[in-house]
Design brief:
Strand content: 25-35%
Shape: globular
Largest sheet: 11 strands, mixed
Number of helices: 11
Structural class: alpha+beta
Radius of gyration: 21 Å
Length: about 375
């Protein structure tokens, strides 16, 4: 564990004493939802055995439960954080920033070959990047730009979702497969060009209400997706390749969706080879409003257990790591730190998806565990 053994003060939101936070911890009895209010950790499993149910029943009034002490003093090494969602589907929106749109086009034109990327980048960034920043997706101006880019031979399926009417919304990870703060995060062992994607993630209940936000790392395999967009599933959904945390910050009068819209997300990668990379993603530069992305996710689908939605990232690393011109790719042992002052810090160490601890605790296991603890009975539900 990278972050679990460190002091909570190093990864909590800066204003944690005033924040309303929801998460999950691993206890000897099993996964347990917690609420942090006024800086104190409360076990709310008797009220709601899952985070999904807690959010569905959320009215703004904090439920009671067993007080576990001050969050800054809590022993998260003994009872580590899990991903703060459980039964929710984990969705993601792609190509929501101009810079990331250009990088996806570069991957496509390079056919996933990092050695070809820099030459293509110089040809595309000035023209396409400047143009797509200036238009509202789905607008008449965007349609005119599309026609011009087609005429110039610059059109791409990635530009379609960047400026067209329909956002790219895909399923990132199966239920219960995401890892939390301090866990290892996985990159496919056969990928040679990949990077983290530091993002803000909205968390919605079964009715589609956006109730809060957390941080996420939507690990990306640039070589796989670059070879073919039909490899998106292999590029995005692998063992331990989705990290969420540290906790969900619920919306209240101190923290609203406007704070998501203006959030700054910082990324630091520290390698065992002394390589260091830093970057930032500014939510103010997103091309589609976060609630519009939620609306599109819900337009033809329902999520009765709720869903988490990655909002995309401005960050696309091009800094060379080893060989000039080959850009960045992960190495095992990299420590990835995703941070935003009012959401906290999500930190994970990179390994391969084959070497990461296997995902072995599924939905049936959770239901059996909760039933064995008496948390699914009608009496417990009351």
């Amino acid at each position: 564990m990278v972050g679990g053994a460190t002091s909570p003060a190093t990864w909590l939101p800066v204003d944690w004493r005033d924040a309303l936070l929801v998460g999950r911890i691993q206890t000897p009895q099993g996964p347990t939802p917690i609420l942090v209010r006024h800086g104190r950790v409360v076990d709310v499993s008797a009220f709601a055995p899952t985070v999904s149910e807690l959010l569905d029943r959320w009215t703004g009034e904090a439920p009671g439960g067993a007080d576990l002490g001050v969050v800054a003093d809590f022993d998260f090494a003994a009872r580590p954080l899990l991903a703060p969602v459980d039964l929710q589907c984990v969705k993601a929106a792609g190509v929501t920033f101009a810079v990331s749109a250009v990088e996806r086009v570069i991957e496509e034109r390079a056919r996933g070959d990092a050695a070809k990327a820099e030459a293509i980048r110089g040809d595309l960034r000035e023209r396409v990047g400047a143009d797509i920043r200036s238009v509202q997706p789905g607008s008449e101006a965007a349609q005119r730009l599309k026609a011009a880019l087609i005429a110039d031979g610059l059109w791409s399926q990635y530009l379609e979702v960047a400026i067209g009417p329909d956002a790219e919304i895909f399923t990132k990870a199966p239920v219960l497969s995401a890892v939390g703060h301090g866990a290892q995060i996985g990159v496919r062992s056969d990928s040679a060009w990949n990077n983290p994607e530091p993002e803000v993630v909205l968390v919605c209940d079964g009715a589609g209400r956006a109730l809060g936000a957390t941080l996420g790392n939507d690990v990306n395999l640039r070589d796989f997706e670059g070879r073919s967009a039909l490899l998106l599933g292999k590029a995005k959904d692998n063992n331990a390749s989705c990290a969420l945390g540290p906790l969900i910050r619920l919306f209240d009068d101190r923290f609203t969706v406007d704070d998501v819209r203006s959030a700054e997300v910082e990324l630091t990668i520290q390698g065992k080879d002394n390589y260091r990379l830093e970057g930032r993603s500014l939510m103010s530069e997103i091309s589609r409003d976060p609630l519009e992305l939620v609306r599109q996710a819900l337009s033809e689908h329902q999520y009765p257990d709720g869903f988490a939605l990655f909002l995309g990232t401005l960050f696309a690393p091009t800094q060379d790591r080893d060989t000039p011109g080959l850009g960045f790719t992960h190495k095992p042992g990299d420590v990835v730190r995703v941070a935003s002052p009012r959401l906290g810090v999500l930190e994970n160490e990179v390994t391969t998806s084959k070497a990461a601890p296997p995902w072995s605790f599924g939905i049936a296991d959770l239901m059996r565990n909760l039933a064995g603890r008496g948390l699914l009975s009608a009496e417990a539900a009351r």
